[in-house]
Design goal:
It contains nine helices and four strands. 65% of the residues lie in helices and 10% in strands. A hairpin with a 2-residue loop joins strand 1 (100-104) and strand 2. Strands 1-2-4-3 form a four-stranded mixed beta sheet, with helices on both faces. Helix 4 packs across helix 5 (68-97) and helix 8 runs antiparallel to helix 9 (176-193). The chain has helices at residues 9-19, 28-38, 46-49, 51-66, 68-97, 132-137, 140-155, 158-171, 176-193; strands at residues 100-104, 107-112, 119-121, 127-131.
Length: 194
């Protein structure tokens, strides 16, 4: 028969944060077991298998409860970041709308005089943008390869992934690792299409 011990500080934190109001008769070990049964997700385990994770999670929760202005500041950051992203996307859309439209290999492309790399923009109506110098200097086979690359982005749904990534960046605007990860995310998308 297992001896009943008094809960440690981290066990009290678990009970307080997660189920103190719902199930006051559960012991700390039962709470941990219930948490493990309900949530068996990769890195989220850090918060219920590790005392440090539990303390950090409960500490941040208490700070946000005590200082409501932190929540409002974070929400304002989300709106500012989202507005900035929306403004940039809208400006790019207007810029592409003013470009010359041509047909290349049965594909409609938009030609620009600016020195840019070929790219695809637009979530619902994707548009392929190419610089005019490429059309003049590259031969037919190279242009077909570039078009195939851009069409692959469209077919694999990368534009949707970019959109979802932007939403994630807006929601987690304060996380510096996400900003660093953006570069790697884009590189991975390019490697998939190559």
């Amino acid at each position: 028969m297992e001896r009943e011990t008094t809960p440690s500080q981290s066990e009290w934190l678990i009970m307080e944060v997660f189920w103190a109001n719902d199930t006051p008769t559960m012991t700390a070990k039962e709470v941990i077991k219930r948490m493990q049964e309900k949530s068996d997700v990769g890195k989220i385990k850090f918060f219920y298998e590790n005392t440090i994770g539990i303390i950090l999670f409960s500490w941040w929760t208490e700070i946000c409860k005590a200082h409501i202005w932190i929540n409002w500041l974070y929400l304002c950051g989300i709106f500012v970041y989202a507005a900035r992203l929306f403004y940039k996307k809208r400006k790019l859309k207007k810029l592409v709308a003013g470009m010359e439209r041509r047909i290349l290999e049965d594909t409609s492309i938009y030609v620009t005089k600016m020195p840019v790399t070929p790219s695809t923009i637009g979530l619902f109506r994707p548009k392929i943008v190419m610089p005019e110098t490429m059309l003049k200097e590259y031969d037919r086979k190279e242009l077909q390869t570039i078009l195939l690359h851009e069409k692959t982005h469209i077919q694999l749904g990368h534009l949707l992934f970019y959109f979802l990534w932007d939403i994630l960046r807006a929601l987690l605007w304060l996380n510096p690792l996400l900003a660093i990860g953006t570069k790697f995310f884009r590189e991975d998308m390019e490697e998939v299409c190559d």
